[in-house]
Design goal:
245 residues, alpha+beta, 2 domains, disordered N terminus
Length: 245
């Protein structure tokens, strides 16, 4: 994945968060990648003539690499946007945590069912509110639940919520590949992926958890992780309850 590695090691990866013209930067990176992807789709579907077996294989390999690059570009820009907006006055009010979690569950239940996984959620209460931004909370739990489904081949993904001393504790537990002990201290670093995650064949950029950590902290919370390799992983997110709730 030469193109992906090149972008990860380039100045873009370290200086992108400082760029003020985010909309221009987004267009300049995303547009050519997506246009090229569309052209490859045209080729793969035979609209420019039938491909022989070798040609079809090469086009498919190019499509996979371009998809990985597109994911990386999107994640870099997401991280840049999160940090560029860090000082902005984002309105954070009482948000229904149950509503956020249910919406994320709906997205991943078909994927989990296809893999034969059980998806469980306990402790949901429509009266349970957290202080935060709904879009940011969606991104947090979309990443954590999505990763749990992605890296679990058998067993279950379980989300639990409980109220405790002015906080809501949300745990996302799976019976997946787990995280090696030596990788845990680096898990929230940009571009870091544990060795078994790389070996799994699942695509990833190593930016998702860095984005999640930033978003959790922006919403006044904190995040922790416990994991045993080949056994499973549990992420715990603590979010504040609005005053008077």
């Amino acid at each position: 994945m030469e193109s992906v590695m090149a972008l990860q090691s380039s100045p873009i990866a370290t200086s992108v968060v400082a760029l003020p013209a985010m909309s221009v930067f987004t267009h300049e990176l995303r547009s050519p990648v997506r246009v090229t992807s569309s052209l490859l789709n045209v080729l793969s579907q035979g609209y420019a003539g039938e491909l022989n077996e070798r040609q079809a294989e090469l086009v498919e390999r190019a499509r996979r690499r371009l998809k990985a690059l597109e994911t990386l570009v999107d994640d870099v820009l997401d991280l840049a946007a999160v940090r560029a907006d860090g000082a902005a006055d984002v309105a954070r009010g009482p948000i229904s945590l149950s509503e956020v979690l249910r919406e994320v569950f709906v997205r991943y239940e078909p994927v989990a069912a296809e893999k034969g996984l059980s998806m469980l959620c306990s402790g949901l209460d429509d009266r349970l509110m957290v202080c935060g931004d709904q879009q940011e909370l969606d991104r947090i739990f979309n990443n954590l639940i999505g990763n749990a489904v992605k890296y679990t081949q058998a067993g279950r993904v379980e989300v639990r919520t409980e109220r405790t001393d002015g906080w809501v504790r949300i745990s996302i537990a799976d019976t997946g590949i787990g995280i090696p002990a030596d990788a845990l201290p680096r898990l929230f670093q940009e571009f870091f992926r544990a060795r078994n995650a790389k070996a799994s064949g699942e695509t990833g950029t190593g930016l998702g958890l860095a984005i999640v950590k930033d978003l959790v902290e922006r919403n006044g919370g904190r995040i922790e992780v416990e994991s045993v390799e080949s056994v499973g992983t549990t992420f715990v997110v603590m979010l504040p309850i609005p005053e008077g709730r």
